[in-house]
Amino acid sequence: MTEEQAIDLLTSYRAKQARIKALDAVPVGAGITISRLSEDDQLQQLHRRLRGLPSYMYLTAPELRLEATAHAYLTRYPAGTRAQLAAVPAQGADPEDSGQLQELRSKIKRVIEARGAGTDDLDMLLERLAEAQDLQAELRRVDAVLEALAGYKPDYARLLRLRYVEDRPVNAVTEELKIVRRTFERWRLKAIEEFQRLA
């Protein structure tokens, strides 16, 4: 890593933080943002809690009838919502069952829509998620190097953080560190050398 690359890495820290914040705020549907995308959604959390309980303990009477109809017509129970939608037949043996099956299909469709699982947006969403993860990894790397440097040269680490990460002017950094301009320049060069060596 050259001196210029080290300085670029440090000076771009705040811009990367801002970009991560902007990416994390991108909604993906149902109030879920990219920052929460890797976590289970609330529906999955609820399913996990209810899995061990008998359905009559948490379903209403109409929901129990819907469940009974689903059990009567389903031969397999797929895991994904799209697969579940495909597994539910469009028509039943009688009009009442057909109505129940249509209601079940509409509920599954609402879940798919609420999760924002449109395949058109999926590629863009994955790109943004990957970008956010890459930026977070870069910031962790800079933090780790500065922390390691602070372990044996705390003044150098503070100088780099104040001057490049926080983008403070030279005179503000010299005041904060209580040093003169000449000492600042000497420390700055040595601090960048140490940063390069550790990075």
Can you describe what's shown?
The model has no long low-confidence stretch (mean pLDDT 83). This protein folds into two domains: 3-38 and 121-198, no CATH class; 59-114, no CATH class. Helix 2 (13-24) packs antiparallel against helix 8 (119-152), helix 5 packs across helix 7 and helix 8 packs antiparallel against helix 9 (154-165). The protein has helices at 3-11, 13-24, 34-37, 42-50, 61-73, 81-87, 95-114, 119-152, 154-165, 170-177, 181-198; strands at 27-29, 32-33. The longest helix has 34 residues, at 119-152. It is mostly helical and 199 residues long. A two-stranded antiparallel sheet has the order 1-2. A hairpin with a 2-residue loop joins strand 1 and strand 2 (32-33).
Helices and strands, with pairings:
Layout: H1 3-11, H2 13-24, E1 27-29, E2 32-33, H3 34-37, H4 42-50, H5 61-73, H6 81-87, H7 95-114, H8 119-152, H9 154-165, H10 170-177, H11 181-198
Antiparallel strand pairs: 1-2
Helix pairs in contact: 2-8, 5-7, 6-7, 8-9, 9-11
Radius of gyration: 28 Å
Overall pLDDT confidence: 83
Main sheet summary: 2 strands, antiparallel
Strand segment tally:
2
What is the first-to-last residue Cα distance?
Answer: 8 Å
Helical stretch tally: 11
* Shape, principal axes of CA atoms: rod-shaped
Q: From the structure provided, what is the oligomeric state, counting identical versus distinct chains? A: single chain
Helix content, binned percent: over 70%
Low-confidence stretches: none
Question: Which class best fits the helix and strand makeup?
Answer: mainly alpha
Strand content: under 5%
User: How many discrete domains?
Assistant: 2
The sequence of SSEs as H and E is: HHEEHHHHHHHHH
Q: Biggest sheet: strands side by side, in what order?
A: 1-2
